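Read as chain and fold; for instance:
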Amino acid sequence: MALSTAVSYASAVKLACRFGLSVSTSQLQRLMAPLAYQTAQMVRHTLKLRAEEPLPNLPGTKGRVMVVQADGVIVLGHKTGKNVVRDDIPRETGEAFEIKALTVYAENSPANRITVAEKCDADEFLPLLAGSLRVAGVWQQDTLISVSDGALWIEDRMNCLGVTQHVLDVFHAVSYVDRVRED
């Protein structure tokens, strides 16, 4: 189990073999599943509790620029999850759900980041967003900048969190301009 928390399953299997242990990646996944589930539950609970805390106010301290990146990924072909009603999702694939993800970091320190991903709706994701800001050490004096694909659920949640600037990623900005030019 210790190997599986430090490296990928494939690497853990290779290392275990070097020590004479015979284990497969699927065995490691089955072994780790309860730990992963419990850890996810604890993180979710902690972030929801932290969401209720006020952001620290440090009078006389110059605020930083904090970047909040958010996105959603639709996963197709699974028989569990919530249906996503969109014309561009083929119905024969079965149900689909969206995994929402967030990354928060100081503009001058992108390597020092917190990332959270969760399969939930946008309203359930808001406390995780707010809690992540507290865990990332955001202050009241900080300026929050959002980087996203322009999805309305993201913009709405960012506005709730006090984001002052929304930056549209280049890929989506270009595709939106192309769509407007076609019309």
Summary: The radius of gyration is 20 Å. The first helix runs from residue 2 to 6. Confidence is low (pLDDT under 50) at residues 78-82. The first strand starts at residue 65 and ends at 78.
